[in-house]
Structures are given as structure tokens and as C-alpha cells.
Amino acid sequence: MRIGQPEPKRGNRALLAALIALSLVMLTVYFREGNDGMLHSTRRVMLEVTAPIASLGTAITSPIRTVGDFFDGITTSKSTLDALEQQNDELRARLAELEEARQENERLRALVEFAEERGLAKLGARVIRRPVSSWEGVIVIDRGSDDGVEPGMPIISSEGLVGQVAEVSKSASTVRLITDQQSGVAAMVQSTRALGIVRGAVSGGLTLDFLGGEALPQPGDVVLTSGLGGVYPKGIVIGDITDVDSRRGELYPRVVVRSRVSIDTIEEVFVLVGAGVETDGGVIE
Asked: Residue 140 and residue 136: Cα distance in Å, rounded?
């Protein structure tokens, strides 16, 4: 017995053709009749019946569409956020550069004013190396013999006396700090005009030795360069007295001085290339 594919029923084709013909007739009638026609009225009734169902479907699917829009927004916002973060990083870097320039300008302005008030011939320099330990009493600056720097020239900052050039190369110089134990500065107490020698110590502090005069200095008194000895100009601030110990039986009191210069943070200095010694008759170059 041969089994073949079943032949399509002809009744289905006839029904399809009838439905198509009926649709064409209804479309023709719908477009030809007025708004008060039967088909138009039936359509309005169907809209009224199905409107609540459509609203319910919209309400159900609205949260789903909202969630989809939210995630689409996240994708867009993330790319925007990345761009904003990059711009923010660039602005922060630029702001840091401007702040650094502002602080440097303030330091240099104070340094220039300090030197100009005293009529000192000066050469600006940057500190390129600080002491690596409390035992090391030197710094290195970026000026050397090619710039006219010579051993013995004083070094100052806006806070006061820093030290003296010890060694010179073509493009750099080593500066021995006043806090180094090998340093000695002819000094005087501003309030009493008493003279002495400020010396450095191993600990990095300062002492005022061989102090003359009858009146003892007091903590808080300012110590200046005296100008004697021809090394440092007169009137440069060395530091402030922090302690005075006058023991009986000792020829000189023990006076402790704190430098105003912060070596740990100093960045710019001046080399006094034309430093003179102030006397009663003026300044000797």
C-alpha cells in the first residue's frame, strides 16, 4: 500500500477566498459610508471595549520599558562619566601646577624684597640637594663658577641666614649651613647689641658663645649678623634665642638659638655675590 502526502482540502481554500472577498467588501463599505455608518459605529464600540485592556497592558509593560531605558541611560551616562573624569583629572593637574607656581612666586617675592631692602647684590639659586641626615650640615645649589659663584659667598633665604659657599663646580655649589658644627658667625643680640659667635652643633642646633655685655639676653630675643670679620653683611637674621642658662662660675652664659630657616623645606636661596661689610662709614665692597 503506497503512502503519499495528504492532498490539501479544497474547503479551506474556498473559506480563505470567501474571507478575503468579505474583507474587501467591508473595506469598500467602510470607506464609502459616513461616520455614522454601521462599520464606523462598530469600530468605536470595539475601541471603547478594548481601551481598558490596552491601558492595563501599557501599565504592566511600562516598568519594563522604564528599566530598559534606565540601563540604556547607564550606558550613555558611563561614557559621559568617563569623559568627565578625564577632564576632572586634567583640571586637577592644571590646578596643582598653578598652585605650585603661586607658592613659588610668593617665596621668590619675599626673597627679593628681603635682599632689596638691604641693598644686597644677589644671584638666585635653587636647592637641588638637602642633607640626608642630621649629621650632614650642607646643601647643594644649582649655581657654580660659570655663574660667578665663589667659595666664601654668603647664602640667604627670606627667613634669614642659611650659610656660606664651601665648594664650587662649574654648575653647582656646596653650601655649609650655619648649623654645621664647623660653622661660626659673628653675631649680636638685637635688643642689647651684645656681641658673640653663633656656632653650629652636631645636633643641628645653634649656640651663641662668647657673649659679651652685662645685660643677659632673654628668650625671644633676635640674633643678627654683626658684620664683623668681613664674611657676612650686617643685619641678617640668624635666629631667635630659645634658652639662656647663666651658671655661676662660668665666664659666659649658655645661650641656645633656633634658626628661622627650615632646611627641610627650603627650595630657593640667594647667593650674595656683592656682599659688603657695613661699618660706621658705610659699606665696604
From this structure: 12
CATH fold of the domain at 118-276: Thrombin, subunit H (2.40.10)
Give the start-to-end residue ranges of the domains of the chain: 13-90, 118-276
Distance CA 273, CA 120 (A): 8
- The C-alpha atoms of residue 22 and residue 130 are separated, in whole angstroms, by 102
For 153, the grid coordinates are 659667598
Euclidean distance between CA atoms 285 and 279, whole angstroms:
11
Length of the chain in terms of residues written: 285
Instruction: Please say whether the beta carbons of 275 and 233 come within 8 A.
Output: yes
Do 211 and 189 meet the contact criterion of CB atoms below 8 Å apart?
A: yes
Distance (Å, rounded) from C-alpha 89 to C-alpha 200? Answer: 46
What is the model's pLDDT at position 134? 67
The C-alpha cell that represents 231 in the structure block: 664674611
CA distance 143 to 65: 71
The pTM of the full predicted model, rounded to 2 decimals, is 0.57
**Beta-carbon neighbour count of residue 259 at 10 Å?**
24
Phi and psi for 113 in degrees, rounded to 5? -60, -40
CB count within 10 Å of CB 164 equals: 21
Residue 193 has pLDDT above 70, yes or no: yes
pLDDT at 167 over 90: yes
Higher pLDDT, 143 or 104: 143
From residue 184, alpha-carbon distances to 36, 178, 241 in Å are 118, 7, 16
